[in-house]
Amino acid sequence: MPIRMNQSLIKELTSYGMCPRKVKAYYVDNECESDPSIYMFRGIYFEYKILGNLPKSGEVPIYPLLKRGRYEIHKQRIDEQIENFPKILEKEGIQIIDGQQEIEYKYDDLLTLFITIDSLALYKGRLCVMDIKLTLDLNSTFGKISWGNYDQMDKLQAYMYAYVVSKVLGDDVGFLYAVFDYKKSEREYRIFYEGLDDFKKRIMFERINKAEAIYQNIRQRGWKPKPSEETCKNCKVKNCDARFRYEQAPVLDEKALMKERKPVALIEDLLEFMMD
User: Fold this and answer.
1) pTM of the model
2) Checking DSSP bridges between strand 111-117 and strand 119-123, what pairing results, if any?
3) Within 13 Å, how many C-alpha atoms sit on residue 59's CB side?
4) pLDDT, tens digit (0-9, with 9 covering 90-100), for 84-142
5) What residues have CB less than 8 Å from 267, skipping those under 6 apart?
6) CA-CA distance, 223 to 217, in Å (whole number)?
7) Phi, psi (rounded to 5 degrees) for 31
8) Is residue 186 classed as helix, strand or coil in its secondary structure?
């Protein structure tokens, strides 16, 4: 049977503690979808305002009001970056030439890679896939996605998007992360460019090939679950008997226990505790 993979599935398959049943539900059968966090919503709102891109749901993102009928302070800061966006494009020599679209490429006889790009742009005269990112603080070095620690970040998306578009268009295509923040002190942005050389291709191919082999293996084994506290924490797979559960410690009746214990035994316990 053919296999279709995007970069999210490849990352999931090659991650530590991956659960095959969860992979099948989320990425193969599309039965489940993670709820967007407020941070994800802010990014969706920002991208819609600057590029007109809609989320998977197809619904226009409407910024929610707080209980008192006001917007959170972050909206004001994000709106400032929305206003800054055209000026930044001009300053950085970026010209958007095409919008959001899904692109597929047949990687081998079995596997098709598919990507959803935010836009195609010319960057200083070179054709690039441009991906828009919104973050609270560009200088943060905390977490897996930390733009202040860019050199250590997972760049599979950049390599794979540049590779797929290059193959489909028959041209050498680069990749841009256009990252904007909305921290309290000031509004900053940064443009990260990734060209695709032989070393980066080798890293990408190894990751894709490993994911494809894992996919075939877990499909052949019947997508058996691999529960863990981290994997099961926010999983939406229904009727999973293998789900990780905390074992409830037995509740002791201290009064009844004291009655059962003889005074001598209690003294012995106390002496043993003091000796330790």
Assistant:
1) 0.85
2) unpaired
3) 5
4) 999 999 999 999 999 999 999 999 999 999 999 999 999 988 999 999 999 999 999 98
5) none
6) 9
7) -85, -25
8) coil
